[in-house]
Design brief:
224 residues; alpha/beta; Rossmann fold; 7-stranded mixed beta sheet; 7 strands; binds S-adenosylmethionine
Length: 224
């Protein structure tokens, strides 16, 4: 039984189809169960926080399985950047979409009762060459368990993947919320950025865990 619309159903409790409209909520229960059974623990890294909806679901699901001890939420907190390069011409996204400032997100987490659930920290700024160091600072000594990429655009995803390159390790779950945006084309968006990242890092592999909703794809990272 869900407490509210952002409550992921526990994996063991009549688990629903992830391709349903609640897929983006429940994917975190699936990932939490995967991590728990494979004995992987660490931080939850989210890129693209919006209002905080996915952060609420994530905090609930990973905390329930006790797999993530800290939650690092990264965003401009000003919405999407100006579209450049291959992102120009998107019919779906434009500058300023999903603009929620950090106090609004903090209030949202509070409203859903997850603000005190576990250490939550924020990394504010445009994704770019400094993001890798900022994320490394925020992580401290913590290994990563989940990387949730919900940044819509190729350019943004490109920076995010560069930022996490030094933190990925076998067993880390990587969620790409916008895998099927841009007509599910491999030439745009998160698909393109991910393909380029894998090419640039020989030995890196992503093995599919699940699809969710019409849009998302979950993988498990591996490295030769
Ligand atoms: C679709 S929203 C995230 C929704 C959220 N994960 C949820 O499910 O509620 C996309 C977010 O990515 C952020 N974003 C995209 N590109 C960015 C960039 N280059 N730098 C910083 N933030 C970015 C936007 O500010 C926005 O909050």
């Amino acid at each position: 039984m869900r407490r509210d619309e952002l409550d992921p159903l526990p994996y063991a409790e009549g688990y629903p189809s992830l391709l349903s409209v609640t897929g983006r909520v429940d994917i975190h229960s699936l990932a939490a169960k995967f991590l728990s059974d494979s004995r992987t623990q660490g931080a939850y890294l989210e890129f693209g926080v919006g209002k905080g909806r996915s952060a609420v679901s994530a905090l609930r699901a990973y905390r329930r399985e006790n797999v993530c001890d800290r939650y690092i939420l990264c965003d401009s907190f000003e919405g999407l950047p100006e579209l450049t390069g291959v992102d120009v011409g998107s019919r779906q996204f434009q500058r300023g979409d999903y603009a929620f400032d950090q106090p609004a997100v903090e209030a949202f987490l509070e409203r859903y009762g997850v603000a005190d659930a576990a250490p939550v920290s924020f990394v504010k700024g445009w994704f770019g060459p400094d993001t890798a160091d900022e994320v490394t600072r925020a992580l401290g000594d913590s290994p990563v368990a989940v990387i949730h990429v919900d940044v819509d655009l190729y350019e943004s995803c490109n920076w995010v993947l560069q930022a996490v390159t030094r933190h990925v390790r076998p067993g880390v779950v990587m969620l790409f919320d916008d895998w099927n945006c841009f007509n599910a084309s491999n030439r745009f968006g998160e698909r393109r950025a991910t393909a380029e990242w894998l090419n640039a890092n020989p030995g890196f592999e992503l093995n599919e865990l699940s699809s969710y909703g019409w849009h998302g794809r979950a993988f498990v990272f591996d490295c030769l």
